Amino acid sequence: MASKEQKQNRSFAEKLLRIRGKDYEEWLDEQHQQVIQDNQELILEALEAKLSFKSPAHQD
What we know:
The chain has a domain at 23-53. The protein contains three helices and no strands. It has helices spanning 4-19, 24-38, 40-53.
């Protein structure tokens, strides 16, 4: 559950973004995409590790 401070921060961010002509949800999605993009190497390593530990008898 979000704290009072987190709710206030979100409210401020939403208002600031609106003033700048940006939608909060679109901006938030951009942030999610950036985190994923910034961590692509880690994601690929995890997928490779999953593939290397997967035995042929347990293919999902």
